[in-house]
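**User:** My hope is that you can spare some time for a protein that puzzles me. As I understand it, each token names a local backbone shape. I would be glad if you read both lines and explained how they fit together. The protein I mean follows directly.
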Amino acid sequence: MRGARLAAALTTLALVALTPAAAHAAPVTLTAGHVDVFDIDYTGGVLSLDVLDGTGATDVERAPADVVLQVPAAAKVTVPSGSSWSFLGAPGGTAWVLPQSQNSALLFAGWNTLDVPAGAVQLNSLSLKLTSVAGPGRFVVYTTGSFGTPSKLFDSGDGLPDTRAVTAGTHAHANWGFTAAGTYTATFEVTAQSASTGAVITTGAQPFTFTVLN
């Protein structure tokens, strides 16, 4: 009897080990609401890069690999005329944009460095780098000023890597543009220099997945 129970227990363990869901949970798809795509933290000399999911009742930090950021058909825009908008395609064409201003039907996507204490890293050393993009079109993060003029922060269409300095203790939003429907994987990393030792610290490369719907 004892041998039969042991055999049954081993069979159960084997089945659990072979179940894909037990090995890795499916990514969470975020569709609308506030999200800090880049939640940059610094604790005990270690930099970390997470997604801060604010789409629910409480904020949840998630690993980038565990999140899919959805860009629905409602994000479609007509590309304006003027050479300053050429990164989104030909004038009158279609692009998909998660906007810098809040729209309840879309993700309100930004970043924050609120958990990087002032003085923890050397001044102007905290940087966010886009190292690679895989996808069917161009991926661009840009801001628009009070007169609507775009200013690019990251652009997969004009050569990578792109590196931008970010300031500790800030929270900001931008426009996230895509020129074609499909799945994009954008790889980012954060680096800084320790204020106390001068050593370079990094989060390492982290992949972020966006699905753009037609």
Remarks:
- Residues 27-212 form one domain.
